[in-house]
Amino acid sequence: MTPIHDFKGKILSSAPCELGEGPSFDGETNTLWWFSIIEKQLHELDLNSGTETVHDLPVMASVIAEIDSARQLLASDQGIFIRDRATGDLTHHCDIEADKLGNRSNDGRLHPSGALWIGTMGRRAETVAGSIYHVAGKTVTKLFDAISIPNAICFSPDGAFGYYVDTKVNHLMRVALDPATGLPTGKPSLFVDGSGKPGGMDGAICSGDGTVWNARWGEGAVDHYATDGSLIGRYLFPATQTSCPVVLGDGRLAVTTAWEGMSDEQRAEDKLAGALFEIAAPVKMTATPRFRL
Asked: Which of 69, 182, 231, 249 is most buried, most CB within 10 Å of its CB?
């Protein structure tokens, strides 16, 4: 029987994000970043001081990544931007789907090579409206299309494998990659069949040991999968709509949540919906890649 771990963590932020997503940890500054996508907000939490800052954005962004000590990369519904850390100013870098105004960005992550994988979806999660792209510098390559809700984009520590899921299908896929570029070298295969089970497979990360941690939207849980795809643990959270995990360091995991789509009655019942949590877990930190311009 798969071990189920009750919540024994803490609340890092009680700011109720409508759609908390895209957490990213900056180890050099000990800062955690995440988004409230629908509200067009970027949250910044200094883990040294506990100070949280909310940055209003002119775009609906969902992914942030390091470029260097002065700049960050933002993926959004209006394309890819470079963010000045000091001023917050955004400079357009490249388009993703300039011809699809009904779409927005969703889940994404940097490959160890420094290339970005970014998924798109319809603003109302229209069926097969989105795709997953590879962005290297300003070169954008479509990898997979006919995706409804792209999620769980993550990579093995050596960059040899990539993972992704369409939450409407709940098939977590694995694909062999060129570690030097992050481009596929073969066809995707089924890694975990999550269909027919409650909840949706949402954001994921790969731990330093190669295991996969996947948030289960609607179940208030993060599932831990071995390198062979077998479920080896479930970690529960006091908010139903768990959306994406991030490693804060060896043995520490943070998880975003959301209250999107809830009625007033559901929100009253799910009091911590949209909060950010931290738990102790058997995760290992990996090197943080930087986007190569």
From this structure: 182
